[in-house]
Amino acid sequence: MNWDIAHNTLINTSFLLLLITLITYWTTVAFPNLPIIKIISRYQIITINILLSIALSIRWIKHGYFPLSNLYESLLFLTWCLTFAQILIEQQIKSQLIGAISLPIEVFIIAFASLSLPSEMQQASPLVPALHSNWLMMHVTVMMLSYAFLIIGSLISILFLIIAQGKSITLKGNSTGYFTSNKPISNQEYSQIYRNHNSRNNLSSQLLQSTSLPRMTLLESLDNLSYRIIGIGFPLLTIGIISGAVWANEAWGSYWSWDPKETWALITWLIFASYLHSRLTKSWNGKKPALLASLGFLIVWICYLGVNFLGQGLHSYGWLS
């Protein structure tokens, strides 16, 4: 068996399916009353996740170590994490909204990995001595899963800000209702106002129909969903940073070296810790936490990719030369 041909075929098939799935997901948002499209799109994303799993397994079997030796493998694994997180979240909320906003990112990542990276960077390279450790799978897997959940949660906050643009919105309690223009109104009154507004706002109306969370307006649903997803990603990020510190002490003799990757991981942690703190204490509500989560989207990408382009450090090997 030619492992390289099989791997490339799986990746190319995944890329093509991602493009098709992106279209089907957007179709479900535009036409929410077509249940067959929803079923097809769900099976498509599951198929993509399986194809990526097989492709990564092929590299694992061929080279004898977990496929995270370079940027190419890392991007493929991040795509797998995003599709995995998407499947889990959609299973809980019964909505295609998550895929509609996360699939463009997934398409971009796998396109960048397959089409932009030179062929020599797509080839597996021998692991440096520090990576010959069981911590590789544990630390990097948890960090990548945390990135996936934080990215999706931040994207929902960005969508929240787009839809809430031009409105004065504050959150009452813990995602139980909204005030507009600083005048409190009941949920029933708000729902009627929101339905009237949706008759003039086709995008909001379509997204609301595609979300099945009970007794929640669209903005309430997005705000609450972003909070819950970031609430999953943040503990994973914390575990990843702690495991990385333990591994660093084992490999380099120091728990913390203020390496660029470590520094930006700490900044990422502080951003989302501030977001969750503001939500738990209710010191901020409405748009302010969403702005903080949207900033977190940028910070995650700087932590994941930016330090490898802009600086040299202990984490630069195996990524960009």
UniProtKB/TrEMBL annotation:
<dbReference type="InterPro" id="IPR002541">
    <property type="entry name" value="Cyt_c_assembly"/>
</dbReference>
<feature type="domain" description="Cytochrome c assembly protein">
    <location>
        <begin position="68"/>
        <end position="315"/>
    </location>
</feature>
<keyword id="KW-1133">Transmembrane helix</keyword>
<feature type="transmembrane region" description="Helical">
    <location>
        <begin position="97"/>
        <end position="117"/>
    </location>
</feature>
<comment type="similarity">
    <text>Belongs to the CcmF/CycK/Ccl1/NrfE/CcsA family.</text>
</comment>
<feature type="transmembrane region" description="Helical">
    <location>
        <begin position="290"/>
        <end position="311"/>
    </location>
</feature>
<feature type="transmembrane region" description="Helical">
    <location>
        <begin position="225"/>
        <end position="248"/>
    </location>
</feature>
<protein>
    <recommendedName>
        <fullName>Cytochrome c biogenesis protein CcsA</fullName>
    </recommendedName>
</protein>
<keyword id="KW-0812">Transmembrane</keyword>
<comment type="function">
    <text>Required during biogenesis of c-type cytochromes (cytochrome c6 and cytochrome f) at the step of heme attachment.</text>
</comment>
<dbReference type="InterPro" id="IPR045062">
    <property type="entry name" value="Cyt_c_biogenesis_CcsA/CcmC"/>
</dbReference>
<feature type="transmembrane region" description="Helical">
    <location>
        <begin position="43"/>
        <end position="61"/>
    </location>
</feature>
<feature type="transmembrane region" description="Helical">
    <location>
        <begin position="12"/>
        <end position="31"/>
    </location>
</feature>
<dbReference type="GO" id="GO:0017004">
    <property type="term" value="P:cytochrome complex assembly"/>
</dbReference>
<keyword id="KW-0201">Cytochrome c-type biogenesis</keyword>
<feature type="transmembrane region" description="Helical">
    <location>
        <begin position="137"/>
        <end position="163"/>
    </location>
</feature>
<dbReference type="InterPro" id="IPR017562">
    <property type="entry name" value="Cyt_c_biogenesis_CcsA"/>
</dbReference>
<comment type="subunit">
    <text>May interact with Ccs1.</text>
</comment>
<feature type="transmembrane region" description="Helical">
    <location>
        <begin position="67"/>
        <end position="85"/>
    </location>
</feature>
<keyword id="KW-0472">Membrane</keyword>
<keyword id="KW-0150">Chloroplast</keyword>
<dbReference type="GO" id="GO:0020037">
    <property type="term" value="F:heme binding"/>
</dbReference>
<keyword id="KW-0793">Thylakoid</keyword>
<dbReference type="Pfam" id="PF01578">
    <property type="entry name" value="Cytochrom_C_asm"/>
</dbReference>
<keyword id="KW-0934">Plastid</keyword>
<dbReference type="GO" id="GO:0009535">
    <property type="term" value="C:chloroplast thylakoid membrane"/>
</dbReference>
<dbReference type="GO" id="GO:0005886">
    <property type="term" value="C:plasma membrane"/>
</dbReference>
<feature type="transmembrane region" description="Helical">
    <location>
        <begin position="263"/>
        <end position="278"/>
    </location>
</feature>
